[in-house]
What we know:
This protein is mostly helical. The chain has helices at residues 8-28, 32-43, 50-66, 73-97, 103-119, 128-145, 150-156, 161-185, 191-217, 228-243.
Amino acid sequence: MTILGVAPSALAGLAALVILAAALHRLGGQGFGTVVAPFAALIAPAHVPATVLLLGVVVTALGAGFDFRGVRPAEIGWAAAGRLAGTLPAVAVVGAVAGSPLLGPAVAAMILLGVGLSLAGLTLRKTRGTLLGAGFLSGFMGTLTSVGAAPMGLIYQNEAAKAARGTLNAYFLLGVLFSVGGLAVAGLVMREHLLLALLLSPFVLIGFRLSGPLARRTETLPLKPAALGLATLGALLLIGKSLL
């Protein structure tokens, strides 16, 4: 028996994963897709990237709402323009790899690229050009695999979490809406994706609720991707499955 094409045991695993990823995202302002995507591609590949992106709408809307006062509209505008430009070619690629054996390696490659960017020690000045470029790369990676946080993380990594969370979440909210919209126009968002996202949405709320006290204690800490190890493990498992 399956529920929306997902075995009950896999569905339970996804629910636990959504709670963990939502909690980590609440603390750092990014990382939900980075944690969820590789494991979702392992146990429910038909729901990547569409369902993960739909859940991302809920996650980023909540995150932007909690940290609304920290949103910087001018920075979002340039990054969002880049995101939209990066979304368009990615939609075409998703149409080619969705449901094929290439999906797993594509997700794993984007995750490892994101981890590599986060660990590279690069420091990007916040300019219109870097925001536009990071937005483009984020849009391509995010639409293709639902993992697009790393390029923007390079720009905001040295800012206090409280200062960066609002702007990042507002940007990611626009970004996932662009990505979901592009995929929907291309006919790549199905009824099953919407229903599973709806079913898993309450677990996002649980993750945010559980992370609330910690979010207040980590407001002054530098923004660091706490989920890199877990994401790398998922990517390596995904590569291993692809090779079998």
